[in-house]
Fold:
Amino acid sequence: MKLTNIATVRKSLKRLPTFKNTETHGITLPSSKSLSNRLLIVRGLSGIPVRIENLSDCDDTRRLQQALATPDGTRFDLGDAGTAMRFLTAFFACRPGIRELYGSPRMHERPIRILVDALRSLGARIEYLGTPGCPPLRIYGTQLTGGEITVSASVSSQYVSALMMIAPTLSQGLAIHLEGAVVSRSYIDMTATLMRDFGGVSVEQEGNTIRIPATPYAVSAAYPVEADWSAASYFFELLAIAPEGNFELTGLSRSSTQGDSRQVKLWKHIGISSEYLPHPERISLSKCHLYKRKKYKEADFTDMPDLIPAFVVACCLTDTHFLFTGLQTLIIKECDRIEALITESARLGYVLTTDESHSTLAWDGTRCPESEHRIRTYNDHRMAMAFAPAILRYPDLVIENPTVVTKSFPRFWEEFDHAVTYLASSQKNP
Structure:
């Protein structure tokens, strides 16, 4: 995708303006995919057809919804919906019937053995239909007993969340002992909070042990889904790269259970000030120029790995050197995001490095010749959205396969175009 109107935008943004922009552009974010998918699973397990307000309309949620709406179906194609694959594996394992879960070629490379082994230890019967340890799967659903299990939490928090949500339906409940370094713990906490608030069940968390007794879900009220904090990162990034401007992102709560809400403090180091506003809930973003460029920014992203693409591109284009750690889960995402970010950043002239374990990304200011201003997305929605703001610096930038954003943010390009148009017009009219 080439945004042809960016040539004029680039000219208007070429110089740092000497005025303070007082206008604000509002941006409508999508509903949280993470919350939507968990709510659908809990509702499905409860058997109570309550309404979920502001449910996400992204591809992943739609695929999950379709599978839950046809529980007697024998084969489901989940595409690249990793969350749906993991949640439905556990969901169908404890529901009578035989189902087969398929996905895209990349999905058939993504690991699921930890979850399958845990479910098998509880009495589930699950077969691999391709490469052992990866989808596709054939699941023979049955009533599971529960008890106590130990699960590695160092690969994906979604395995843990999937087990947590089925736990109340098991005859003995479930105690989950988390083994190893826990990644994305905030998502486990999100699942626990939702199960309590929406599902009406008890979830006890003590250290690395989660205990959930056998008890019927008591879903009894509509539940509003807040805006997606992951999607917000691309507009923080866009404003960080632009010389001036003000955005308001609607639907974001200060008390959000989404781990990605913690990004606010990190963006301040890259030139963005934030203020929460009530009625309706939203966050106001503005430029702050009180930071030193070329100063190393070190941060641990163990609990918010989905934000890495936006932060990497923003830091490079603002000449902010960085060392980001806790990225071990990025190699099993829609693509190997460590390798993808290194490769695509080099096309724009930035030399990123990683360590032997591929759990870090760093940039110390080293540049290389630009090869071409064409970004491959690897069928990964976050690669497309993260590199889009780079068009402010590279007006001939091309984003390949731009429709991949529908996985999490169907209206991204519309909102992005409006934001860029606002930035251009605001610079022209001080």
